[in-house]
């Protein structure tokens, strides 16, 4: 909870407790009630309302009405006083609970020596038709770029979500199916800033900066990798995150068009449908990343308002991705010679085959659950009875087994080719994104993240990513052995 909210809660609790005894405290109660009204107005002006506090606001309004319109004689019985006090405390408690589970969070500060600028662009790939649009237009992407910047007094920190909290609103709408409610519940994100400055000039040095692409997971957004991007940029990288159109919760374009999610994983015919849909979407993800690299080499200053074109070192390009984006990072690293190093954050591979051995530096960071799954898949087998129980044909099972064992084989082969497999034992799938900071207690309760300290986990992930890219794009000494020694929740794996 924010400071003025805490003060308001404290005064409201005080006035409730003072009402329980006889009315000898009337003058004090009136005085504190005026303070409550004043603090409430100050809160609205300087901190701003948010829905989590609606029950606290309700009590404040009722208390104010009581202050100006109550009867001169108080004829309430002791029982009624206790009931009223209990009801008031319950309202305040509800707001405290909602404030606890849906906080006004702050992303960790970048740790590098540079301030960070950011800009958002629309790019159109004239070589690809948008297959998920009825209008058959060319595929277009929203990309966000973070870079080392020079900050002046005219610059202010950019909001975390510059597109009207759209991504969170669309996610909520999947559950409440009501546009008003989804906008209402996501409205408080307007109070949350990033650690970068929109439109700031790239820092004025002769130095060229390596390029890193970050690819989000299916159904999420580039926004969930803001902290990772900002931290890398603060250490001298240009970082680009595309929204994979129709694969995000929602993407808003400058003309107001909104591209909503249209890439569901299909399960109609079991594993084959799931595998085919992920292969299809993964190919689109990979082509998006290739296109973004092409565009980064031809950006014109007048196009994005910052002179970035000649400040990117295109001989040093890395890629990272989460979930499906992690699979795309592997594909791009395998097929595109421009990629020097890559990272897959808890993602499965797609279009697997034992001939797709990657001979480049590549880091796999796996959650504990994912690592255990890989270990189980390495020597998996099912008899006829088990196949009947799961309703799987022998042919389909053999296809599934081949795909899963091929993926394990590729991971283990990567270790022999300058690769790293790192198991984060306590992490869950979404501990590799910023969503763990949005509503950490609720998200952990839902099982989306592991039982880890959010700030320490985000800091550790940033340390790992920075160390890996510093090693392979800036040719510095690796500290991965030291990092794993100092953090026992991490384990280096050579095989499963």
Structure description:
The chain has helices at 3-19, 26-47, 54-69, 78-101, 166-176, 179-186, 226-234, 271-296, 301-304, 324-335, 368-378, 384-390, 394-415, 435-438, 440-445, 454-473, 480-486, and strands spanning 115-129, 138-150, 157-159, 193-198, 201-202, 209-215, 238-243, 250-252, 258-260, 312-322, 339-345, 362-367, 420-424, 490-493. Strands 1, 2, 3, 4, 5, 6, 7, 10, 11, 12, 13 and 14 form a twelve-stranded mixed beta sheet that branches. A two-stranded antiparallel ribbon has the order 8-9. Helix 7 (226-234) links the parallel strand 6 (209-215) and strand 7 (238-243). Helix 5 packs across helix 6 (179-186). It is built from 17 helices and 14 strands. The chain starts with a helix and ends with a strand. The chain is α/β, with parallel strands linked by helices.
Concise overview:
The protein has helices at 3-19, 26-47, 54-69, 78-101, 166-176, 179-186, 226-234, 271-296, 301-304, 324-335, 368-378, 384-390, 394-415, 435-438, 440-445, 454-473, 480-486; strands at residues 115-129, 138-150, 157-159, 193-198, 201-202, 209-215, 238-243, 250-252, 258-260, 312-322, 339-345, 362-367, 420-424, 490-493. The protein has 496 residues and is of the alpha/beta class. Strands 1, 2, 3, 4, 5, 6, 7, 10, 11, 12, 13 and 14 form a 12-stranded mixed β-sheet that branches. The chain has a two-stranded antiparallel ribbon with strand order 8-9.
